[in-house]
Amino acid sequence: MARAGTLARLRYRFIPDHVIGEILSKKWIDNAIPFLVLVVVIAAFGMLLPNFFSAGNLSMTGRQLGEFALVCLAMMTVIIVGGIDLSVGSNFALGNFTALALLNLAGWPVWAAIPATVLVCGSVGLVNGLLIGFLRLRAFLTTLVTLIIVRAIVDMLLLKYAQAMSMSFFDDPFWDLVGMGDVLGLPFSFAVLVVVALVGHILITRSRPGWRAMAIGGSRRSAHNIGLPVRGIVCSAYTISGMLCGLAGVLYAARLSGAGSDTGMGLEIMALTAAVLGGNSLGGGRGSVVKALIGAVIVLVMTNGVLRLGLNSGSGPMVLGLTLLFAVFIDVRWLKNRDKLLNKVYVSPTLVEMPEPRSTSEGAFAVNDRLADVEIIGLGEIESPEDVILDEDDILYTGTRHGDIVRFFPPDYKRHEVFAHVGGSPLGMSFDRDKNLVVCIGGMGLYKVAPDGTVSKMTDETNRSPLSVVDDSRLRLADDCDITPDGKVYFSEATVRYEMHDWPVDALESRGNGRIICHDPATGKTHTVVRKLVFPNGVCTARDGQSVLFAESWGCRINRLWVSGPKAGKVEVVVDRLPGYPDNINRASDGTYWCAIMGMRSPALDVALRMPGFRRRMSRRIAPDQWLYPNLNIGCVIRFNDQGEVLESLWDRGAKNHPMITSMREHKGWLYLGGITNNRIGRVRLKDADPTWSAWSDYWGKRA
User: Fold this and answer.
1) Residue 5 lies inside a defined structural domain of this protein
2) How many domains is the chain built from?
3) Given CB 3.0 to 4.6 Å as the disulfide criterion, which of 198, 516, 653, 701 pairs with 530?
4) Do 297 and 415 have their domain in common?
5) 446 and 309 share one domain
């Protein structure tokens, strides 16, 4: 048994089960299957075709890719908004003919012919956009008609001008550079593709128009209901598609200097295959430039490879057809099953061996009724007052689940008002030296509320872990904060894996997903101080000014982080073996500290923590509302000193006034109580407490 236990500890310590769930939760996982197909296709044709990786072949393939990938990007642009453009092939042919006609027949200079060609093809896209976006015609039928009409126009123009163009010759160094020249060792068309792809990626992922296009593709009706200009954005997408086809046509004309009736024939099928094969969803709302480029490379390599292998003329379309069928199948099945798979593997419990808890039947933790007669403030008028804090004027502040900071006015605290609307879920709070209210907001980060109610962001990110699969730079659940004498804000982030609405699931894992973070308002910089903590919570600056106390809720302990002095950076356990889950920590008037215990440990969960396999099966086989969670229905308040000695505890044995206590503040002889699941604030008179003491004066000195 001892050997098996040792192996289990080693297994859960060194094998990161949660990595699979993290990978599946990332958006870039959509590129995994297309990228694998890309590697297989390149490897296969690299072995079958001689000189496949030669410089000459790579250069020619790069020029072709520069042209073809632009058409794929055009198709991707309209797919993102939930459309389709079957006219890209004929529009590409129109661009090729227009460029040659303007240069060879009209004698236009290159600098004028290229933009004119792009605008001509963009006008075709504009027509599609007006019909589909504003007149709300079906994209498939509309672009099919456009395909036929534009192809007919190109054929008629070729019939009239093909001979004249073939007999003329346009000589220009820049045109030669566009067709067969290099830029920094790259084929010119490929260099153009790189620039367009970078700009497109930034627009889609980092700009408001890109986000709006994604929203429209995801749900056009919802996008319309929230006020997005759906018709204009759809029209713009088709216009951009046409312009990209025109640019591709220019590059093709410069390379071959010829036009024929078969130019661009079947290109719409190739582009559609590439877009879908790369992972862009036909349903819209899911796509990227990278996906389109991956698909373009796959299709181009397969098409050229089939031709070079000398297979019959029907082999190319057959391969494309089968590839498109495969891509659609993967797209549908992946969308249908990805979330199911993620739900099964994301929750990844680890082995936890909790120490024996301290007794609550005797000593400082003995259960009592000292909170049974708590005075109630704001009953039914507030929801989820996770933390409470008072200023020097005795005004009581708290947050609500509606995203408001509410303040109650003394002396009876019956009158209240919304002090500021911050959004999110306001959690831990602290006053700085200038009487700004610093607030941790779940899902948003660290914010500041000025005395006049003005809200401003302090930080919503920190430095990313160098070896982390998940981008942990974004703050998910900042939950309590305090300020050191030098003005730095130390705050806890309970978990980097779960959002505000499902934070108790972190207890099921007990993996160590939390961290302590420091923000320096003087420099505006934020960095992570301690990682891999088990739901770090309450933060309180110790009176020595060199350390910060913080709780690890699921670890049932209180730690000390040294932030300056000879021990800077070290973490020490101050109080352990707590019988419940510690939450916010705050100073007491006699030099000790208060700590809220938000719930009590249960033997069933303690046993389950030693059985990660059981917890994993539980998370996969039964509904979340039936999972084994920590007992958060009853708690208490404890007082401890710097040496880690627990001096007393305050209980509400019947759990009537405060069934869950997440915070407490001592202020002028009273102890004020908050609870994230409560609809009230409580206060209780403290015997022998200093009736003049307040936390603000203790931190920053007496008011002048």
Assistant:
1) no
2) 2
3) 516
4) no
5) no
Give, to the nearest 10 degrees, the angle between helix 315-345 and helix 267-277: 20
Do 397 and 324 belong together in one domain?
Answer: no
* Among the listed residues 107, 143, 101, the one whose alpha carbon sits nearest the alpha carbon of residue 125: 143
pTM for the whole structure: 0.76
Q: Which of 652, 654, 653 is nearest to 682 (CA)?
A: 652
Backbone angles phi, psi at 5, to 5 degrees: -65, -40
Residue 399 reports pLDDT greater than 90: yes
- The helix (run of H) or strand (run of E) holding residue 182 is strand 182-183
* C-alpha torsion 250→253→256→259, nearest 10: 150
Same domain, 179 and 265: yes
- Whole-number mean pLDDT of the chain? 89
Residue closest to 669 by CA, chosen among 695, 644, 648, 647: 695
- Output the domain CATH number for residue 232: 1.10.3470
SS3 674: strand
Residue 206, CA distances (Å) to 135, 160, 209, 213 in order: 30, 46, 9, 12
Task: Answer yes or no: do 337 and 419 share one domain.
Answer: no
pLDDT band of 314, cuts 50, 70, 90:
low
- Are 120 and 159 contained in the same domain? yes
Q: How confident is the model at residue 285 (pLDDT cuts 50, 70, 90)?
A: confident
The answer to whether residues 382 and 338 belong to one domain is no
Ordered DSSP codes for 95-143: HHHHHHIIIIIS---HHHHHHHHHHHHHHHHHHHHIIIIIS---HHHHH
pLDDT digits (tens, 9 = 90+) for 138-159: 999 999 999 999 999 999 999 9
Q: What is the CATH number of the domain that holds 565?
A: 2.120.10.30
Domain that holds residue 567: 365-459+473-699
Listed in sequence order, the DSSP H helices in 312-437 are 315-345
pLDDT given at position 484? 95
Euclidean distance between CA atoms 417 and 414, whole angstroms: 10
pLDDT tens figures, 405-446 = 999 999 999 999 999 999 889 999 999 999 999 999 998 999
Residues 265, 376, single domain; the answer is no
697 φ, ψ (degrees, to nearest 5) = -70, -30
255 close to 180: Cβ distance less than 8 angstroms: yes
Residue 2 has pLDDT above 60, yes or no: no
Question: Looking at residue 131, what is its pLDDT?
Answer: 95
Own/partner pairs for 322-326, CB < 8 Å, 24+ apart? 323/273, 323/277, 323/298, 323/299, 324/269, 324/272, 324/273, 324/276, 324/277, 326/277
416 phi, psi to nearest 5 deg: -145, 165
Q: Looking at the domain assignment, is residue 352 inside a domain? A: no
